[in-house]
Write the structure tokens for this entry.
Amino acid sequence: DAGVIQSPRHEVTEMGQEVTLRCKPISGHNSLFWYRQTMMRGLELLIYFNNNVPIDDSGMPEDRFSAKMPNASFSTLKIQPSEPRDSAVYFCASSFLAAKLAAEQYFGPGTRLTVT
Amino acid sequence: GDSVTQMEGPVTLSEEAFLTINCTYTATGYPSLFWYVQYPGEGLQLLLKATKADDKGSNKGFEATYRKETTSFHLEKGSVQVSDSAVYFCALSETGGGADGLTFGKGTHLIIQP
């Protein structure tokens, strides 16, 4: 299995530009999570999906952030317009939810975003 | 809301030393508890987990026991190796980690010197 795939691995953009981060979860997994990691705030859950449906987006910092999951094998996290304080590493994770057991979340390698 | 507190790093030890990384939590319900490890440039990997009080999770020589009375889940290893150098995250989930997102501690950077 290829694991969770994220692209791009690194993104450098100017303030005000639109940024789209992509994630391909592990085949067969039905839950997908987006996290953000910064030195100041650590790891924060932004949003998660079950069976392609957004369940909780309370962690999304502002309306500039949006996430979609059009099918079971693809998700995007979009920032428009981007700001320097959005600079962080963004992780996607997936898991298989069966019966609300302590299922392992598998993390991708992350996308390091730098907004100048 | 839920929260996880773990000791600040970096923690620097010599090879073969005993390791303890403290973790305490606050939760409204009865959470599942996890330790994740992050090696440089990589995503997080699950190291071990425990789902109920007095459960002991173990993997690769690491252990942690779910202590409900002290709301703690301290990570221990009897003899660390250079290859254990990484950032370690304590985390909890109210609904088991698969149905819901994880709440993470800030992470502890562990450095093992030869």
About this structure: The mean pLDDT of chain A is 92. The CA atoms of residues 12 and 114 of chain A lie 5 Å apart. The radius of gyration of chain A is 14 Å.
